[in-house]
């Protein structure tokens, strides 16, 4: 069964991300996307715990020979989300790693400051996930580093990375970053994850000429811009932002995956130069018409779920389509599906929550129109 990109809204399964597409995914994709913080800051409901059970009558004797049940204390492996940020900070100790380690994992150590890493000889991977780090610092001597994870911290600024010239993967998702900056020396960077920050503008990426994946899901971006130099970019995830127009993508001729779910787009346009596009995820927008895909002949996945489309047309030429996600639209006639007969590789369709799904013969009619389809919505049919 196909996997869909994970977004904050319920959509169908997607490719692995970043994010990813968001697209997650990571509209956030495929391979990085994503921690649930919905409980952060909530206070526990103590009303029930304040009510005391009535005392037993004193004249009822205890049963002889029956031992009292021991009191059980529940100990959580990690503090609950509402308490994580109030934990006492710890420091990195040289006892936490061996000098010759190439991969070092400080996941959930409650580290407040990056320090005491001078004895590391030639690390290639360091993970600082789920800590209390406020500043990127004291990494200048780790020039062999290829992957750095700073996911889920308290970082407000990208800085002090100039010496990490061999870095290929940088993840600073789930922080408090508002500006993309100070990345110019990372010429070998291939994957950059900036999910769930406070970024309002795509900028300062010109020198990342080897970048292949850019994950910007769940930010405050309004315009796709300043990507012209990213000639090698293959995956772009900008789901759950405030983007209203598909634009400035014409220079991304290597683009294979575009996830732009949960934005404010009303017109499908601007992809004429993206002839290598294989996966397009555009669910949860305001699109009313399928159009302007004449040059996207390599598309294998087309996600237009949760839009405002009533007529299904202009896709008969997309003969490589295998996955077509079109649920939660406004198709009210099975005649609209006739265009799907022209897609010889079609395997999966999502059409639920269109008016046609009220028909008791809904699944059977789709199977007759689409003889190659093996999955309708979330159910296998052949």
Automatic annotation (TrEMBL):
**Coarse class of the protein's main subcellular location:** nucleus
> What PROSITE patterns does the record tag this protein with?
LRR (PS51450)
> What does UniProt give as the signal peptide span?
none
Compartment list: Nucleus
Bias regions of kind Polar residues — which residues?
A: 1-10
Question: Can you tell me which family this protein belongs to?
Answer: Belongs to the SDS22 family.
Q: What is this protein called?
A: Dynein axonemal assembly factor 1 homolog
